[in-house]
Amino acid sequence: MKARNTYEQSLMRKSGVIAAKALKKAVEAIKVGVAELEIDEIARKEIIKLGGDLSYKTVPGYKYATCITVNEQVVHGIPTNRKFESGDLVSVDLAVVYKGWHTDCAWSILVSEQGIGDWGQLKKTKFLKIGEAALWDGIEQAVDGNRVGDISSAIQEKIEGSGYSVVRSLVGHGVGRSLHEDPEIPGFGKAGSGLSLKSGMGLAIEVIYTVGSPDVILDSDGWTFSSSDKSWGGLFEMTVIVGRKEVEVLTDWRKA
Ligand code: MF3
Ligand code: CO
Fold first, then answer.
1. Which residues does the annotation say bind a divalent metal cation 1 (predicted)?
2. pTM
3. 150-158 mean pLDDT
4. What is the residue range of 104's domain?
5. Residue 1 domain flag
6. How far is the CA of 118 from the centre of ligand 2 (A)?
7. Mutate to test the pocket of ligand 1, among 92, 94, 104, 240 (most ligand atoms within 8 A of CB)
8. Residue 137: inside a domain
9. How confident is the model over 114-130, as pLDDT tens digits?
């Protein structure tokens, strides 16, 4: 993984703004009765409108703008006409390519009809809070001189320290000229180990976790991974540029 020069970084930044705006539209449209394919369409339209293209088209055999997963599904869900129900835990994952530069991001939310706040929902809210916190803990480590293992162990500590599991077989990754580049960035590992980070590197940091078993199984559709024990899965991902002192987050949809 090469550090990107200032010009390359500026293109990644633009790619990230498009991804963040599309993720914002998608996340905000997730409501009871809305279908996964409608969310995919909203994201696709926004990406194209803003001058980007679908990065997932570069994955052989995949034609959607997003991956959408619900409840026990963890990653790589193909958008279908399934409609969201109150209490569903939904994750949207999307990536953009702009002038040849890729950015990748994902977020998870709880579909909830106003006024509902039973115990089951509170548990899901806590699960999501911890996943998001783990993402920011990992991101914070993406500074010059730190190592990949510092990101990994920060994520692992938060997730496992809260009693949840980090999925082992799916990892974050370098990103830039292509969607998936070196290095792999697991959500588990030893602080101080692994590749040394240099400012200018583009990383897709991902928190892929479950309430129960860390094992995932591939569904019969050939794409979707679900938790082996059917426990809830969550997914939080941002593309960042490693900084000298501070990391730059390119895909923060809440600021888009
Ligand atoms: N964002 C996903 C990841 O980094 C990529 C999904 S590729 C697809 O793992 F083909 F499944 F869409
Ligand atoms: Co990714």
1. 93, 104, 237
2. 0.97
3. 98
4. 6-255
5. no
6. 33
7. 104
8. yes
9. 655 567 788 899 999 99
